[in-house]
Write a structure and sequence with these properties.
single chain, two-stranded antiparallel ribbon, alpha/beta, Rossmann fold, about 210 residues
Length: about 210
């Protein structure tokens, strides 16, 4: 595991948006609790990036786009099983905006994902087909940032997928667990923790 070096590492804050916080369309329990912790981390790091879930209306991952389908059910898709979600983070809506308490001023780049109508995107680096890049990897490479420190929402989906893809790209990865919250659907948190551990991702329990 690489040692933390806030002057040289990238802090990547994942999807800290209204729809993933209490009162939002796809709220993660206690999701807004990550905001002050994310701000503390931002104050420490010289390089900060954000991701923003940014779906067009009628996105294929929305249950409402499939007549008779229930939210949180699963359908087959060209890239594998697709969980169907409540409509969330629709482009230009309040739900898609970053949480008002989140300090975004220090972000060097904001990567929007899930923009393609037929393809979902959990990872900050690739769409869910595992092949279509978001462009964030190019920024990381061009800036010479080899260690990515992650926090945000949700631990078992967008954070974990981002961390695993970053490892696939050859990056060192640490996840600040106190600054994350999980959906934990059908054991998804335990599975994500196991996958990240197996991939050599450092799971940190102290942001001090």
């Amino acid at each position: 595991m690489a040692r933390l070096d806030p002057a040289r590492d990238l802090l990547l804050l994942i999807d800290i948006q209204n729809d993933f916080c209490p009162g939002g369309a796809l709220a993660v329990a206690d999701g807004d609790a990550v905001v002050p912790l994310a701000n503390r981390l931002s104050d420490r790091f010289s390089h900060v990036a954000l991701t923003q879930d940014w779906h067009p209306a009628g996105h294929a991952s929305f249950a409402s786009s499939h007549p008779g389908a229930e939210p949180f059910s699963t359908i087959p898709a060209s890239h594998g099983p697709q969980t169907l979600w409540p409509d969330h983070c629709v482009q230009g809506t309040v739900g898609a905006a970053f949480h008002a308490g989140l300090n975004i001023d220090r972000a060097e780049i904001i990567t929007r994902k899930g923009c393609r109508p037929t393809l979902d995107s959990y990872s900050a680096f690739f769409e869910n087909d595992g092949a279509t890049p978001t462009g964030l990897a190019g920024y990381v490479r061009d800036r010479g940032l080899g260690h990515v420190v992650m926090a945000g929402l949700a631990t078992d989906f967008c954070v974990a997928w981002s961390a695993l893809d970053a490892r696939r790209l050859g990056l060192d990865v640490s996840v600040m667990l106190p600054a994350c919250r999980a959906i934990d659907q059908d054991g998804s948190l335990a599975a994500a923790i196991a996958d990240m551990t197996d991939a050599g991702i450092a799971l940190l329990d102290d942001i001090a």
